[in-house]
Amino acid sequence: MRGNLHGRQSWRVSLTRRARASARACVDLSPHAGRGGAGGIRIGHVIRIHPAQNKDMDLGIRGRKALLSGASRGLGRACAFALAREGVDVTIVARKRDVLEKTGAEIAAATGVKVATVAADITTGAGRAAALAACPQPDILLNNADGPAPGDFRDWSRDDWIAALDAMMLSPIEMMRLTVDGMMTRGFGRIINIVSRSVKIAQLELGLSNGARSGLVGFVAGLARQTAARNVTINNLLPGIFDSDAQRAHVRAMLEASGKTFEELWRARAEANPARRYGRPDELGAYCAFLCSQHAGFITGQNLLIDGGSYPGTY
Q: I need a labelling partner for 95 at 20 to 30 A (CA). Which of 68, 134, 171, 198 fits?
């Protein structure tokens, strides 16, 4: 659009063919409109775009293969569902076979993608070998592990610390070691680690998680900068309180020290969050799916909070 704003009515509106087909413009070119004096021009320009209905963003990962640990329930399950809905074939790993196979059947029935289940302990060499035998060339890797119960560091033995490191730091690093070079060779890879907001704001009762997960985050900060040029990104999701089995177990472990009932403590934690609620697992699943998409290749090495605004810092 161009014209003379001093009263001369020499206006021209140029729209692309697509815009002309989908837009309506209303322009009042009266020289006495607007300010009430001569030469005043009032322009009202309304464009209504009518995109195709029921069109979701195409994440561009249909046909990709994802390997997800800790994916039979909770946040891992939500990530598996979100990726499957985008046409990704998923291999899900967990220790409890009955829950795992039920989740796998639900994903397959709901999405129609190929679903493989591996009942294994990903913290062991045998468990990792079984996972990679089922999905030897994953394009997407999700590392997810439950955190240990709350407690006092005075009560933890060296074995407790080694178990925490194995679950929340060393196993995810080993899974990255076993998959990242193949991703780089193929020119596409997305690695997501579900960590915890405790790496940004330490939870006083979660010393094992604070330490082990911070070690993973520190390692990823270096590795992610080495893989980005080959279109392999690595990011960490930092969830806050979510309506999940793991959160319920966490709250139950805090009851004795709090002096509250489960319902009281559960409600108090929600009320303390700026969103006044718990997160829904599917919200984190959707975030994960986008970070795994073709559109997220410029996002890497990031620690991404998803916590309803509970983290109090500016940065």
A: 198
